[in-house]
Amino acid sequence: MLFKVKIEKMIACWTFCLFEIFYFLTRVVRMPGIIANFGIALLGIIGFGLCICFPYKILKSNVILFASVLSCFFLVSNLYTENSDYAEIMWIWAYMGVAMLIINFAIPYWLAGGIYYGVCGYFLGCWIRGVPPQEVITIDSRNSVSKIVIAYMLIYLLILYMQRERIDLFAAIISLIICLWGVGRAGILAMLFMNFCLVVYSLGRKQGKFTLVLYVFLIGIASWGIYRYGKTVVEMTVNRFLQMGVKDVRTKFFQSYLDDCRYICNLLFGVPFQESLVLKDYYNPHNSWLMLHAKFGIVPTIIVIGVLLKKIVWLLKRNKRIYLLIIAVAFLRCSFDWLSFNGLFDVLWWLLILSVIAARRRLEDEN
User: Fold this and answer.
1) d(CA 97, CA 100)
2) CA distance 297 to 271
3) What pLDDT score does 116 carry?
4) Measured between alpha carbons, how far is 193 from 229 in angstroms, rounded to an integer?
5) Burial bucket for residue 363 (CB in 10 Å: 0-12, 13-18, 19+)
6) Are the beta carbons of 265 and 211 closer than 8 angstroms?
7) CA-CA-CA-CA torsion for 288, 289, 290, 294, nearest 10 degrees?
8) What is the distance between the alpha carbons of residues 13 and 106, in angstroms, rounded to a whole number?
9) How far apart are alpha carbons 180 and 186 in whole angstroms?
10) CA angle (99, 100, 106) in 5-degree steps
11) How many CB atoms lie within 10 A of CB 327?
């Protein structure tokens, strides 16, 4: 029996590892889109299947019901809006499958951390060699740099926290450095916010002075690296902030989407992008929460946000500050780009939502 459990966990770890590595490769290596999407979806759905075959913490019927409900609302919404390809339904199951792997099989923190630092090492190597971020990313814009780094970092930190290991401060600093290289304002702001909160949090603990010294040391090394290898990149970042500030076309998208929600059908099923005066040329409101409504409609939006709020309230009552910080950084980054519903950050949101389902199931079993 013990051998069987070890084999199952090994398969789950390999599936998680292959998913993160392959997703990263699809962004930095040129390959046909159908191969990239098929590979990512296949690995995620395999993860879902493993958790259905070997359920430990999450009742499989609950998760299947949740994913099925979301899929039905996605289909109904898309009949009205035509905002998506129907094949996108597979992403619901794929990203949820990765989240289930983390919960059901307790994916080791060192595995998630190893992949994260490997990705960071690749980006830092590109920076040192003088390769601009827009030439490193083969799909999407250079904003994908901060998307990948922050998502992998938050998954790693969340696994650390779930397994009650010490928070990795170095990960937050490295992510900030890479976001500076990527020049994306949303990623830089999110990581500045996270590093500031981690410093404040650490100073209030027993080893606060040591943490402050460590931060100063690491920031000193980072500053030298930026001066040595990235003066041009920093100048680009500063100039971009001075020219555009924190406001840009996203504000226009947000206001336009809310205006279109005045119509009852748009409110219920999502705003059809092709009928929007502003969004018809973009098909992307650059906001994950608006995309949740645009692709699933009002009911799933209320359900998802409601469950996340329930999780946040639970964490607030128990003073889980690091957990709350992870949620805040993910929320901040997703508010400025389409990264979720459906996207890589779904792994984090489904992980949080499924943890609520798992906790409720454990409570029912105890009663």
Assistant:
1) 5
2) 9
3) 97
4) 24
5) exposed
6) no
7) 90
8) 9
9) 10
10) 95
11) 20
Contact call for residues 116 and 171 (beta carbons, < 8 A): yes
CB 186 within 8 A of CB 337: yes
User: DSSP 3-state assignment of 53?
Assistant: helix
pLDDT digits over 126-137, tens only? 888 888 888 888
Express each pLDDT in 259-290 by its tens digit. 888 889 989 999 998 887 777 777 778 889 99
The structure tokens listed for 145 are 């740099």
Quick one: tokens of 55? 């359920």
> For residue 351, which of 84, 23, 46, 107 has the smallest C-alpha distance?
107
SS3 106: coil
What would the two tokens of residue 269 be? 């099923």
Q: What is the 3-state secondary structure (H, E, C) of 34-48?
A: HHHHHHHHHHHHHHH
Rg (CA), the chain: 21
